[in-house]
């Protein structure tokens, strides 16, 4: 189980992948939709999507000519939210100490 947990955290361990998860937290999207408003190439995006599929973070389903991506388990968004809360508290405490 620990090996699988590490795999998930590694799958999230890049700013681009975290950005992808946040976008997919709202809706299912295809590569062309995920690429909007981002500063990386489609081939780079595809590599990140593969890593995330391989780590069990995303699922991919073909719809016509498009492949639609979505988060495999919504609980992942709760984990990301919890980490954000931890960091918000840390930054708040650091600001008070300054």
Automatic annotation (TrEMBL):
Protein name: ArsR family transcriptional regulator
Alphabetical keyword list: DNA-binding, Transcription, Transcription regulation
SUPFAM superfamilies referenced in this protein's UniProt entry, alphabetically: Winged helix' DNA-binding domain
Superkingdom per UniProt: Bacteria
NCBIfam families registered for this protein in UniProt: HTH_metalloreg (NF033788)
Pfam families recorded: HTH_5 (PF01022)
Keyword Transcription applies: yes
Organism: Psychrilyobacter piezotolerans
UniProt cross-references to InterPro entries, sorted A to Z: ArsR-like_HTH (IPR011991), HTH_ArsR_DNA-bd_dom (IPR001845), HTH_MetalResp_TranReg (IPR051081), WH-like_DNA-bd_sf (IPR036388), WH_DNA-bd_sf (IPR036390)
Domain HTH arsR-type per the UniProt entry, residue ranges: 1-91
CDD domains according to UniProt: HTH_ARSR (cd00090)
